[in-house]
Amino acid sequence: MSKPVIAIIGINGNLGSPVIKQLTSPQFKDNFSLPIKAITRDASKKLTDELIEYIEINELNVEKYVQALTGVDVVISLVGPRQILDTLAEALKIAKPKLYIPSQFGTLIADGEKVISGVVGYKDKHSQRVRDEAGVKTVDISTSLFCVPGSFLYELVGCAGYDRDTNQITYIGDENTKFGTSSLIDIAKVIAILVSKSNYQDIPNNVNIYSDITSQREIVDHYVGTHPDIQPVKQLPNIPLDEAIVQVKKALANGFSMKPFMKYLQVLSAAGEGKGLAFIDNNHREYVNPGESIFTWTKYP
């Protein structure tokens, strides 16, 4: 049986380097036909070698994506902008890979949309379009919140209710409600494990994983404990969950902006199990990494 040909679209975001590193690592690279195809908007500073072939596509052109993806078995999308999704969907109809992993990483969208609709539901619609119109096996990977030392959940903690400008904390609901966190390395390893499987049709359409669990309180406590130079933090009264949902819907009604999006994530983390960022009782950690036999899940902090 021939080894699958892998293509990655969008390599300059948070997951680009970790995914490439894992796919080309000694642990996984023998599972694939090398080089991995890496499609990027600017390949001028990239060096193709025996592990990675860089392909430049800097416009939303279906024909160019079809050309790059023809003969590819697995397409992994790490792109952020939603504008590219229509182009990808059309290209996948023609290129017909055996497996498509779209850029879902984060909330379990179907559950999150039940709490606050209209924020990221377009991603689920894209996945379903590829399944229905292209007939391509499409696997959405939900990871809850990224956990990155020096960045997400360490320095960027607005999703836990801390306001750096005012040095105040405003929790939503119960600040001890648990939800998931995932390290970028763990996410990349999960992707490598899934695309290494012999039968893609057996993979669930939704794969929910997390590295560890935490809470609003634990994130803020860790931040404060590692920043002894800041003044004592003032905790404001908690906002009831229902009230916060109304506030976020109103704030996002006129389009995306970062501050209300952080509050959106805080609402989902406070909403608890089955509401988008907590799938502690409904996950596939054992499916992808039984008994931690392939790797050890990263702990937070």
From TrEMBL:
Annotated signal sequence range: none
A Pfam family recorded for this sequence: NmrA
InterPro entries in UniProt: NAD(P)-bd_dom_sf, NmrA-like, NmrA/Isoflavone_reductase-like
Domain NmrA-like: from-to ranges: 3-221
GO molecular function: oxidoreductase activity
Keywords recorded for this protein, A-Z: NADP, Oxidoreductase
Keyword Oxidoreductase set for record: yes
Protein name, per record: NmrA-like domain-containing protein
Species the sequence originates in: Saccharomycopsis crataegensis
Lineage: Eukaryota, Fungi, Dikarya, Ascomycota, Saccharomycotina
